[in-house]
Amino acid sequence: MAYDHFVAICKPLHYRTLMGSRTCVQMAAAAWGGGFLYAVLHTANTFSIPRCQGNARDQFFCEVPQILKLSCSDFYLREVGLFVATLSVVFGCFIFIVLSYVQIFTAVLRIPSEQGRHKAFSMCLPHLAVLSLFVSTGTFAYLKPPPLSSLAQDLVVAVLYAVITPAANVLIYSFRNKELKSALKKLIQLVLVQRQ
User: Fold this and answer.
1) Of 87, 103, 145, 189, most Cβ neighbours within 10 A?
2) pTM
């Protein structure tokens, strides 16, 4: 999305050329392929450790840190290896997004009209809000020290980044649709009229 916004704002006349269907398919394939390889890395590492505490955890879904707590062996080196791999993937994505948005904001601030700047910012800021929510909760979930971990806190953080963030993404982008906004206004007015 950062690259799409970059091309749409910084190179609007070349948008159709740069963001053709082939480019979109390549970016989607790279994202899916990278995610799959990363998941295989985590899965292979997680299920190769011996577990001596059973296999039940009181969690919303099966997460790597929770499964690692079931291990009876010293998994420090494996955890450090996964941490380094995770950090490199996340850092690479983060740098790409930051560089894209620095160029976007530089281009937006050069737009002479206030309305044009507002339109460009309204396109980018929802993505940054959802991204910030996802990154902050994911970072807190995976990088907090074990002594700070409680069952309830882990569950809330997992729900935040696994359920709330994707739902917020859909809601934020849906509210940019004028027809949806007007339908929602009518629904709220109807509910308020029926209550009176």
Assistant:
1) 103
2) 0.62
